[in-house]
Amino acid sequence: MCSIRCFRQVSRTSKQLLRFCSNKGCKESKKCAELKAAGTCKDSIKKDEKCKKDDLEKKEKEGCKDDGKGGGKERKKVTLLEGDGVGCELISALKQVFKVTDVPVDWDIVDCYMENAKLNPQLLESLRRNKVGIKGPIDTRDLKHLWKAFGLYAYVTLCRNLEGHKSRYGALDCVVIRDVMEGEYSGIEHSVVPGILQSIKVSTSAGSDRIARYVFQYALKHKRKKITVAHKANIMKLTDGNFLSSMRTEAHKHLEKVKFEERYMDTTCLNLVMQPDQNDVLVSSSMYGDVLVVMASSIMGGKALCPSFYVSKNGLLYDTLLKPTRDIAGMNLINPTGMLLSATLMLRHLKLDSYADTIRCAVERVYKETDIRTTELGGSSKCSEVTDAVCKFISEGKK
């Protein structure tokens, strides 16, 4: 019908014809296609192309909603904290990979401390505003200030073998979740009298309940099958007993959805080494959990390979297990793998899944298809070489 009406209007000017066809939705009609091919609608094509270009520019400026698969272009704001020591090199690698991947993220770069050595209030404002951040390594003393100020109460570390990097211990795919605010790392120490020192281990019902709720929420969300709580309630009946009680109470709410088991800390460590593939989600207090993280990360190849993040009711803060290690800062020796994998977790949290998949795949290809390894993994490659290799695989995937 549309084509017939186009024929009847053939005596009209090309401009009028274009307006008529466009209004009636006949762009795909055969006759309109012939007219355009004949040059009748040349001006209109240019105009249409200009409109499309203007619309595209407008969408890029305004941003469009992401579809959960990374298909959209809505830009996200993320707090970026460079950190100390090797932090500069890790963050530089992160920025380079994000740029090559065209990740729609804008950095809100903030310093941790002001000139008077006090915690920068702009950092806390940025984290509360953006609700997500990523940081390089920070000195433990300074990190404790950030824990308390931003209310970081849990630390999550993913320990999974990278295909292509062999482990003498076998397959491992577990998550370690540890308390940050309480337990042995409460930070309450003092001298009673000369020669006698005292450290206080704090355990509150509110804090233990909060960790327990998060652990089960995480396990259910990520389809984990088993939660193991590591404790020494047989010795520390009150503090560890309180932590264990909270875990039991929460476990009773999810009996049909996820398996729950209790193990002494020493037994958990033994099982982690002897049967690494039998571990799923491990949860414990601050110091016990710290030990489990070191063991699990070592089994999979080292701290440099593990992604991790802090949890707060105000948001999430992603990072790497690496310390500032100032002795090698600026020497291009640090391994950026863990930082890049942490970034993929952050992108999934931001619903930018396709970008996360692209980076994760590129990192895995480096280990599967090349012999590029940093020194702690037995190689001689530099941080920049690992980063360049990841970027190369990302670029190849775009072709």
UniProtKB/TrEMBL annotation:
Highest taxon above the source species: Eukaryota
Gene Ontology CC: mitochondrion
Entry's EC annotation: 1.1.1.41
Entry keyword Chaperone: no
Domain Isopropylmalate dehydrogenase-like: 77-390
GO biological process: one example: isocitrate metabolic process
Keywords, in A-Z order: Oxidoreductase, Tricarboxylic acid cycle
Keyword Oxidoreductase annotated: yes
Signal peptide (UniProt feature, chain positions): none
Enzyme class, UniProt record, top EC level: oxidoreductase
MF terms (GO), sorted A to Z: isocitrate dehydrogenase (NAD+) activity
Family: Belongs to the isocitrate and isopropylmalate dehydrogenases family.
Name of the protein this chain belongs to: isocitrate dehydrogenase (NAD(+))
Organism encoding this protein: Drosophila mojavensis
Gene (UniProt): Dmoj\GI18905
